[in-house]
Amino acid sequence: MSFRTLGHVRVPAPGLILDDVRGAQKMLAGVARCTPMEGSRHLTHLVGSPVHLKCENLQRTGSFKLRGAYIRIAGLSPEERAAGVVAASAGNHAQGVALASSLLGVRSTVFMPVGAPLPKVAATREYGAEVRLHGQVVDETLAAAQQYARRTGAVFIHPFDHPDVIAGQGTVGLEILEQCPEVRTIVVGVGGGGLAAGVAVAVKVLRPDVRIVGVQAEGAASYPPSLAAGRPVALESVQTMADGIKVGRPGDVPFALVEELVDEVRTVSEDELSSALLLCLERAKLVVEPAGASPVAALLSRPESFEGPVVAVLSGGNVDPLLMQRTLRHGMAAAGRYLSLRLRLTDRPGALANLLGVLSVVDANVVDVSHARTDPRLGLTEVEVEVQLETKGPEHCAEVRGALREAGYRVVS
Predict the structure, then answer these.
(1) Where does CATH 3.40.50.1100 sit in the chain?
(2) Handedness of CA 330, 246, 220, 190 (dihedral sign)
(3) What 3-state class would DSSP assign to 393?
(4) Residues labelled as active-site residues
(5) Which of 126, 194, 252, 378 would give a disulfide with 9, using CB separation of 3.0 to 4.6 Å?
C-alpha cells in the first residue's frame, strides 16, 4: 500500500483505503452481519426529515469491533499467526478480537481491567480468548498487553490505530450507502477514531456531498483540542459512562483521516447520553450502550442542525446490567420522569403518612422511602426522609415541589 504524509503522520490515501474497505467487505461476507437499518419516527419528527438507525448493536459480539479485528488478524503472515495475538480492552474490542481469532484459528490473549464487567469478561472467554485481568484502568491494562507482546512475540492488535482495522470498520460506511443511498448526514460516535475514519473514507470518496458528524462524550473529548492543535493531544483525565468512546488520545492514523474527511466533531453531556439510551430502549426497542447512543444524544441535543436523511450509527449494545440500571434512572431523571427528594420532618407519629398523602394528591408514585435520624445536622426532633418518585415530566416535577412547599415541607434537595 502506498502512503503519503498528512499532518505529522504517514497514512494511506483515502482512495487506497477505499480499495481495502471493498476488499474487507468481501472478506467479511459470512463473518460479520450486514446489520439492519431501522427508521425512527420520534427522531424523524424532531429533526424534520427521515432518521435511520444503523444497528451495529446487533452485530456479532454486540458491536462493530469484529469487523476491524477480523481484517487485521486475517492480514497477518503465517509466522505472525503462529505467534498468536494479544489485545487490551474493557469489552467490545476484547470480544471482537476473541471471536475473530477463533474463526481464523489463531491463539488470542486479551488483557482486561480488574474491574471489567463480569458479562464482558465471560463473553470474551466464551469466544475463545485467554483472559488476563490486570490494572485498574485501561492504560495499565494496555501497558501489560504491550509488555506481553514484547516478551512472547505475540502480535498486538490495536483497537483503532491501524489501516487494516480502519478498513474493516469502513465496511459500515459501504453498507450505509447501499441501504440508504439518499443519505445526507451520517452521525457516528468517536473514541480513538477508527470507526469514524473508516466510515468517512468509505463515504467521502464515493459521496463527498454527505456530511459526517463525529460525537464524543464531554468528559472524554480528545478530538476538539487535537483538531485545534493539528495533532493528537492526550487528555489529562477522562470521565464518562460511555466506556466504548472513553479514549484519552486519538490514534495517529485515524486522526489524520478524521482531520481531513470528517466535517465536524461535537460533544454531548452525560445527561444527553442517558436520555438517548432511554429513548433507544423505549421508542426503538433497542438495547444500546452509552457509546452507541452518542449519535442519538447529538440528535436530541440539536435536532434542527442536521440535514436529512440522517443515519445514526448505533455502534454497540454491550452494556453492563448494573450500568444500564443506573443510566436509565439517570435518563429518567433528566427527562423529568424520576425525582429524588430529601425533606426534613418533625419526628412524630403520622408525619410520614401525611407526607405520602400530599404526594398521592399530586399523583407522584413513590418508589422508595428511607429515613435518617442520627445525622448530626438534624435537630433533636427532626428526621430526614429521602423519597424516590416516578413523575410525568418536568412540569409534574415542578408541581410536586410546589405542593410540598405549600404543605410546609422543607425540601433539602
Answers:
(1) 3-63+169-331, 65-156
(2) negative
(3) coil
(4) 65, 315
(5) 252
Residues 261 and 253 sit within 8 Å (Cβ to Cβ) = no
Cell for 360?
Answer: 398521592
CATH topology of domain 65-156: Rossmann fold (3.40.50)
The set of cell numbers assigned to 241 is: 459512562
CA distance 236 to 225: 12
Please report, for the chain, how many H helices and E strands are present, in that order.
16, 16
Distance (Å, rounded) from C-alpha 76 to C-alpha 92?
21
Average pLDDT over residues 89-103: 94
Rounded to 10 degrees, the C-alpha dihedral 264/265/266/270 comes to 160
Task: Specify the CATH architecture of the domain 336-411.
Answer: 2-Layer Sandwich (3.30)
31 is written with which cell numbers? 463473518
User: Could you name the CATH architecture of 3-63+169-331?
Assistant: 3-Layer(aba) Sandwich (3.40)
Find, among 169, 168, 153, the residue nearest to 81 by Cα: 153
**Tell me: the pLDDT tens digits for 200-243?**
999 999 999 999 999 999 999 999 999 999 999 999 888 898 88
Strand order in the sheet with 130-133: 130-133, 108-112, 85-88, 155-156
